[in-house]
What we know:
The complex is a heterodimer.
Chain A: H1 2-8, H2 31-67, H3 71-82, E1 83-88, E2 95-96, E3 102-115, H4 122-132, H5 144-158, E4 162-169, H6 171-185, E5 203-212, H7 220-223, E6 225-226, E7 232-233, H8 235-239, H9 241-245, E8 249-254, E9 271-274, H10 278-295, E10 299-306, E11 311-317, H11 329-332, H12 341-344, H13 354-364, E12 373-375, E13 378-381, E14 384-387, E15 395-397, H14 399-404, H15 408-418, H16 420-429, H17 458-465, H18 474-485, E16 491-492, E17 497-502, E18 505-507, E19 513-515, H19 520-536, E20 549-559, E21 562-576, E22 583-590, H20 598-601, H21 603-616, H22 622-629
Parallel strand pairs in A: 2-9
Antiparallel strand pairs in A: 1-8, 2-3, 3-4, 3-5, 6-7, 9-17, 10-11, 10-22, 12-15, 13-14, 16-19, 17-18, 20-21, 21-22
Helix pairs in contact in A: 4-5, 10-21, 13-15, 13-16, 13-19, 15-17
Chain B: H1 2-11, H2 15-62, E1 65-66, H3 78-95, H4 98-107, H5 156-174
Amino acid sequence: MRRYMADHVVPAGRVRRKPPANEIPEITHSGNEKAGQSLTGWRFNLLAILFLLAGTMITIQLVRLQFSPERSEFVSLGEQYSRTLHIYYPPRGDIYDRWGRLLAGSTLVYEVGAQVDNVENADTLSFALSKVLSSHPEYDYAGYSDDIFSVIHRAEISGTAYVQLADFVTPEELSQLQDWARNYDNLPDVDYGDVGRPSLDGMVYRPRLQRYYPENELGANILGFVNREGKGMFGVEAEFNDLLAGAPQSVWMSLDPYQVTEIPQLKAGADLVLTIDREIQAAAEDVLANALIDSGADGGVILVMDPNTGEMLAIASTPRLNPNEFWNYADVFTDNTPFNRAVSQDYEPGSVFKVLTMAAALDDGAVTLDTEFVDTGSIQIGGITIHNWDWGAWGPQNMQGCLAHSLNVCLTWVATELGAGQFYKYMQNFGFGRTTGIDLAAEAPGRLKLPGDTDWFEAELGTNSFGQGIAVTPIQMVMAISSVANGRGEMMMPHVMRSMVRDGFQYTPTPQVIGKPISEETAHTLTELLARSLEGESSDALIEGYRVAGKTGTAEIATPTGYSTSETNASFVGWGPVDDPRFLVYVWLEKPQSSPWGSVVAAPVFRDMVERLVVLMDIPPDDVLHDLTGN
Amino acid sequence: METIQQLTHAYEQAPWRKQMYMIGMIMLVLVSVAIVAGIYLNVTARAAAIGRQIQEMQVRVYGYHYLTNDAGDEIIPLEELEQRIANLTSQLAIITSYKVMQERVQDLNLEPIDADHIEYMKVPGYRDRQTSSLAPPPEPVVVNASAIDPQFKESLFEWVAEQVQKTARFISEARP
Lengths: 631, 176
């Protein structure tokens, strides 16, 4: 039974069939099957050869491309699509006044562009943009709509993914665009014919920061502005551009999702705290504006400095540009007018310079307060005759009289007593002929002709002694006179940057002493002399309750045909309170019309400025101060 | 000999078993490869998807928005937040600017005071108005006054320990 079953039923894995020893291999394929198999093999072989050939050709092509002349072109094409260059700009640092009030910050504007593939109707897009931006200064021209259309059209042809259509779009303008877009979205689905359905699809925007000056024109000459390229122009913006702007970073962002590039952490630009006091600056600009109206002067400058530290509290200069609308620059600054006259325009200062001539002579010992000079009304020097401002002879005068009456003849004599060598040595020590180093862009060095220069003549000593034939900037005058005003004889470097905030710390540099051109004693003596001079002359510069020292200046203006007698530079420099100097004020009015004299047009401006200054700086009147301090 | 052949045949795998074995092995390899490929695909797909998400976020950080239906408004990138803060700071400066404050002064019928209308008095302990301080001053730099180089003071044991730590730090940093 078991054998039977073994012969007919073979249980798997249990019984193995033993093949017959003389078994002939079985012929399994017929002749037709063999033919079929060879046919199939032929086809397979052909297919294999074809695949092999294709593979070989691909390999050859790959190798060829690696060594082809177009390789670099292909590589750059590939890179173009594999990564994009992004430049990340850190936010520009803010600028504050000395009390922390923002003078220059940032505001949101928008870049508007088109994602070309998503643009549904380029006509609508260009029409909407041109209408909404019709009052925008850069897009307010007739062909803007056509320009947008052609830009989009070119981008479609070239396969460009994104094109920028407008920049510095304001939030109000963007809001209008969004309203337009919403209105188009709500249009009914009807046939719009060849013009197509109106749509702003494809239009995108990106927020960015733009420099903004919340005070508009206030302090504009100090601040400067930032142009469309983000570069600081003039003033603090230009001087500290690198510091304020921070370091932009360029990053190639890979489009490969496996190679996500990290967005760099940007270090923001440093914030600056200025020495400027917004209220004093506003007062100075207001006083200057009134002075220009009253005197009919072409332009003017008022500088307010703390003579103890060199900190500039105000720098008012005309004309002024609203830095938020810097594109009006050419309209505001015509005829090569500098952006800030106080640092960039040199002029012949006139009699205010006598303060320094006298300071040099007193310090050198060439004269004393009691030295007498008999004024005959003229003096010969270097072949020219110098007269007084009134062409009169003032007779015997001491040094106080010489300054009080602003006698050119006397000061020329003082300069000759001092000698050219000493005079120019002192003038160089006062910093003339070179920049002061104030931290504002575009400072002019002025011109101090020295003995030995080809264009220096002996007569220069005489004219220079009363501020003619020498080119100085108002800031140079302020720096030089700070040595007298602070009572220490130390000349302080004028500066507008009080401190810098960077990496979470506020760095405040110490005030710098440029030099000590005169002694403390000379400074005190001269201050007392000038205070008495003002009091003796009942000057318009005197302020009730406060004792101040100062000097007027009237300079003729050099023209190609000689000095003009009808046009002058009227100046006044003064400081106070004499017992504890807190401010130094310099006034310069260019070509005043109401009167050519500094004593008439500039001295009252000084008084107006100081009257407001003592309130803003909490300076009590002298008698009150003496009562309070018990001195 | 025949006995050996018989034994060989007796213990030889059946052809169909060999085939099953081969098929099993091939299937095992195929399944293994499929599993590995599946896991690889899964991981790489997720990585790619997250990569794309990151790129989209970066695009948003770089900041393109649609005029309407901007779905990403609830997620504000850090850069845009900073921009908004800067903008608000400027807005605040506008409403406290000199010109605006002067207009408010006029609206309130206030007048600037003259010097002769001010009364001064002595206030013990009064501190004058301080200028703006936006941040603390930098910390003073502590200069090591020791004149002897640390290398001359360390023991051999300290030097060896230092070298070991340096090497370990180097290896850990070099590892991706």
